[in-house]
Amino acid sequence: MLISTVVITCFGSSFVIGYNLGIMNLPGDRVKNFTSNYIKDAPSPAFLYALVSAVFVVTGAIGSFSSGVMAESLGRRNTLIMNNAFSIIGAILTGPCVVAQSPALLYIGRIVTGFNAGISMGVASLYLTEVSPRDIRGAVGACHQLAVTIGILVAYILTLDQLFNTETLWPLAVGLGAVPATISLFLLPLCPESPRFLFTNKEKEYEARKAFVKLNSKENVDIFIGELREEMEAAQHQPKFRFSQIFTRRDLRMPILLACLIQIQQQLSGINAVITYSSTMLKTAGLADDKIQYCVIGIGAFNVLVTLISVSLLERVGRRQLLLWPAVVLAISLLALTITVTLANQFQGESGAKILGIVSAVFIFVYIGAFAIGLGPVPAMIVSEMFRQEPRAAAYALSQGIQWLSNLLVLISYPSIDNSGITSTLILTVFITCFGSSGLYGYATGIMNLPGNNIKKFITDNIKGADAEFMYALVSAVYVVAGAIGSFSSSVMAENLGRKGKEYEARKAFAKLNSKEDPDQFMEEVKEEMAEAEKRTKFKFGQIFTSKDLRMPMLLACLIQIQQQLSGINAVIAYSSTMLKTAGLGEGDIQYCVVGVGAFNVVMTIVSLPLIERAGRRPMLLWPAVVLALSLLILTITVVLAKKHDEGTGAAKNYGIASAVFIFVYIGAFAVGLGPVPAMIVSEMFRQEPRAAAYAISQGVQWLSNLLVLISYPNIDVSGPFCNLAY
């Protein structure tokens, strides 16, 4: 019964997820033609094509967030049975869209199938984990990801030019997604419900025993029930679990944070951009049109093959190793892919372009293989193993919802990024380029702001065919990447060029720097710290990742630095002139306003100095962050209203001034909180030995986030006034 339960669940739920993810890849040009023929006022066919994936992912996120409630109230199996109906309805709606000449049917169908995929993603993994025996739980859990990859492969095969990839038949291929869902609708009721759910949630011991014996006849049912009873008794000493407790309970905060970060890492590795847009990527790389579809099929088949290999590795190698080393291969393959695609574009029409196109395809295969072994199957399993029965469904729902939102970011941004002349791989390598530094940071970042138009003109005058916006962003990006390299070098330099163990010089320096305090007391404290350090093995850089007492401080340090940069501060510093121009402010006023922004930044940072000791670190991070969010929201509204009035009118000018005011509010809130506090917190969380390494890593993460913001803003800005909502 276990085998049939796993097969039916994977076929009716997991397979359908992969099928619906991959079905829009090869027919991309058909979808663009169809939607643009009937929707005339859209920005571009690429936008309409991206929207097909975007609505799928948005409702996927909604489905994921809803899945926890459904799984707890209806049960794991019954939720999947009900969810099959959404898959069938979505396929039926999409199938006749070309015949009915209605793009609306396509979008509505994708909305419904997206909701289905969101529920399936969380509940199918949860169900498979709970019905599987402990010794093969990893392998059974990996079957979910395996079925997803098989669904992707089947979708690719059915949309070959020789089959359904025609102007009229591609919707039929989408509609075929109803077939496995219909089969599952009739067969899944024959499978038992999760024994854990029956006993823990419904308190039905007899049904739980019966289901357990059907699924796992080799293990002792009394031991299983005894373990569940102990878990329930421990839970009785706590108030009944509610969804909100996933955020408020201390014992759940770190597991849910890790679960969400792993899911974000999975999606921001760019896998679904590769799955959905691999044909576009290969076309960009210069591969011949008649070879692309077969290469895409090969990608799907290779994905299935390597996922099969990962099933046996999961229990032998362990979860952590399968997250770490394949991620390194992902980074290298993306970097190499960026180089080959860039060179292929330089040699278009020449013999070298064909070779580079083939090499690009090889690195896509390497990327897919690394993902299928590590980041593909591992995240869902880790989430299931980190939580006990009560919060497990809520944790799945939240982490899967975060996964879908990250997926949305990747899918909807790729076509726009690609049209701007930036290969997706360049953006994706940002996420795995772990370098950073500080230096002459404020000056070097701000100096590129005001002369933006002159820089763009200089670039286009001297580099033929260059995209001005991309090259302007690249000016900031190369600065940040080089700064990144400096940041990771800083730890080694600080340890080797400073810190020499010279007591006399130390006393002399301390007296110069701090005449009011006793140098003897200072030296005693330092000696005590050194004596403690001698009892431990000599600190090495790698211990920042392996030492248990350093993991949590290091994670918090990196998260605070990410928050600082993803608040968008360096987009404001580097592109405030562009923002104000978008808001309708006059050219003559912009330069003075930008100088005012810089001056106000200095003033508010001075104001923050006495506040930090009085108010404390935590309030200075929390409340200014609320002001940051509100000011960005209001800034969005004022820019939208400014765009509705003709340039030069009184109303447009007033809204432009209002936008400038809220940029000042934003700068002030940042300068008081997220500006000065992160560096202080990092220095206070670590003892002397690991401090330089912790600084290097956290600052590297900060620069990584900085690079993401700086290079993405010109492309996000294409989306119009709503771009600030991203921050």
What is the fold named in CATH at topology level of the largest domain? Answer: Growth Hormone, Chain: A
Helical content (DSSP H or I, runs of 4+)? over 70%
Tell me the CATH architecture of the largest domain.
Up-down Bundle
Class inferred from helices and paired strands: mainly alpha
- Determine the strand fraction and express it as a percent band: under 5%
Oligomer: single chain
State the major sheet.
none
> How widely separated are the two ends?
49 Å
Q: Tell me the number of strands.
A: 0
CATH superfamily of the largest domain: MFS general substrate transporter like domains
CATH top level class name of the largest domain = Mainly Alpha
Uncertain segments: 420-452
Summed up, the helix count is 33
Radius of gyration: 28 Å
Instruction: Indicate the overall shape.
Output: globular
> How confident is the prediction overall: mean pLDDT?
75
Please tell me the total number of domains: 2
Structure in words:
- It contains 33 helices and no strands.
- The protein has 727 residues and is an all-alpha fold.
